[in-house]
Amino acid sequence: MPALHIFNSNAQWLAEVFDLEAEESRCLPVDMLRDSAVSNREMKWSEQEILEKKGIRTREANLVVRLDAAGIRRFKRMHPPGIILSLTGVSAICSRKTGRLWPIASRGRCPRFRWSETAAFDRELNNNVRGLGDRPHMHVGWVSGAPYAYELLMYGRKHGLAKYAEAGAAVLDKIASGLSPCGIFWASWIVDRGWTTGWNPRRNWLQARTIAEATLFMIRALRFERERGFEHEDWKRAALSNLRFAARRQREDGNFGSYYDCEQGTVEEWDGAGGMLWIAALLEGADVLGEPEFARAAVRAGGYYERFVRDEYIYGAPEDVHLTPTSEDAYNAVVAYVLLYEHDRNDRWLELAARAADWMMTFRWTYNIEFPRHSLLRQYDFRSRGADQASSSNQHLHNYGLFCVPEMLRLWKYTGDAYYLERTRDHLACFLQFIAREDGDFNAYKGMVTERFYNTNCFQPKGMMLTLSHSWCVGLVLYAAQEALAWQDELRLSDISVRGREGTAS
Q1: Could you give the CA distance from residue 368 to residue 192 in angstroms, rounded to a whole number?
Q2: pLDDT tens by residue, the chain, 506 residues
Q3: 3-class DSSP assignment, residue 107
Q4: What are the distances in angstroms from CA 430 to CA 323, 412, 465?
């Protein structure tokens, strides 16, 4: 019997195997397995054929049960093997169009509890290739996951939109249920594979920044919900597990390390500043969870990561460009040092926050690029001022700087330097330009937001955009827009004039 995968259900490890004689999938407790070996026997079917047979045999549902939010959460914690949860409704339609992290039901295969990290603009092509234009998985932080679930939850609660709030909470529930053996979050969840370690140099490594970001926004969601009378014990336990791990792994000099072994929890890579965002998670966790030692660990880390900021060489944040300086490193440094300054009002931290913000501006466009005459960005009169280049490895413009909009605005207040206000205003204005207003707008569907604007001939010709809507791109627009509301008088976004080919408009 070839094994398909091993998983944990209700505190019991199970192996899913495929019985070649009966042509059916079975789940067996791992402790029942007596031996395993690589077979020399010629297989009757390929791996793909086995998966297809499994899908055909389990395609039709034989029981439909309606569950409320509490029932769904309990099911995900304790579901028996062989029973699969599928959510349907309005959110299924919306998530396929925008790439938002909402539960959706798969089509034409065994229904699953599924998440979309991306959604292709071209739905016809997507349907012709059986949905492979979409990315039916999620990271727990960074390019999907907790940050954007929190933003959707926050918007839903504030505007009385229960479906949005429930969808955001469902994602956070799923992430909280996915602790790796060493006690921190897994990096990603993939359809038909379950929890995985993400896009790292080695398959058993988990990256500090992805995990720290997920923890930070789990804590923010926990605080937000508490203020409205909602408690989430699973979120609290998961956040504590992650923060205690970070504090225990911290070196005497303050370094958290950048990569961890998912099984043993050992630090596998000390180089880089990938662990810098633990500072923010620990500071907010100290307050929300009542653990003062977390704040002391954050202060020690502030001293260690100072060298990266002063050297103007911060690197290690994204999973996909190993130990390379990126704009994302700058965003994390701004957030970490603004929060350190707010913790103890030490001017050293404020200076470092300003230095990090200044380094961040080396990625930010100060002028509007001239795009080729017939390109899409020229035809839509896209203004590049305020956009950031992702990195030297990924030479395209992206909106991830929206991640630190609230900290940048507070940095302006603390320093009194209007430069930080104006540059943040530029960034917000730039990425409010390209949100599909209706189906067909720049060949996208309503609500879609692309990840990449091509400012040079790298990956695609200059003037094109990636025809893919990404959950983090949608989520960060939602996050920054909500956070900027408190500063709308100072930002004066409504005063910005756009000079188009037909004249000037506000």
Answers
A1: 44
A2: 555 556 555 445 666 666 666 666 666 666 655 566 666 666 666 666 665 555 544 444 555 566 666 666 555 555 554 455 554 433 332 333 444 333 332 233 333 334 679 999 998 887 776 667 788 889 999 999 999 999 999 999 999 999 999 999 999 999 999 999 999 999 999 887 889 999 999 999 999 999 999 999 999 999 999 999 999 999 999 999 999 999 999 999 999 999 999 999 999 999 999 999 999 999 999 999 999 999 999 999 999 999 999 999 999 999 999 889 999 999 999 999 999 999 999 999 999 999 999 999 999 999 999 999 999 999 999 999 999 999 999 999 999 999 999 999 999 999 999 999 999 999 999 999 999 999 999 999 999 999 999 999 999 999 999 999 999 999 999 999 999 999 999 999 888 754 443 333 33
A3: coil
A4: 28, 19, 15
> Which residues does 212 contact at the CB level (< 8 Å), separation at least 6?
141, 242, 246, 275, 277, 278, 280, 281
The total of other beta-carbon atoms located within 10 Å of residue 29's CB is 12
Tell me how crowded residue 65 is: count the other CB atoms within 10 A of its CB: 9
Confirm if 290 and 169 have CB atoms less than 8 A apart: no
Q: How far is CA 53 from CA 42, 128, 131, 216, in A?
A: 18, 21, 19, 42
SS3 assignment, position 3: strand
Give the pairing type, strands 498-500 and 503-505: antiparallel
Q: What are phi and psi of 32, to 5 degrees?
A: -85, -15
Output the six-digit token pair for 416.
Answer: 């009194």
